[in-house]
Amino acid sequence: MGNNNLYKIENTLRSIAKRYKSVKYSLGLAILFLMMGV
Q: Where are the transmembrane segments (predicted)?
């Protein structure tokens, strides 16, 4: 039971990290785009 819970938490953390990375990436692209546009 405890092991399964740990696995779920790990999966959630991993998906959050993935989402955060993609958000950071798109944010960087947006900033780059704005800088080049100006």
A: 21-37
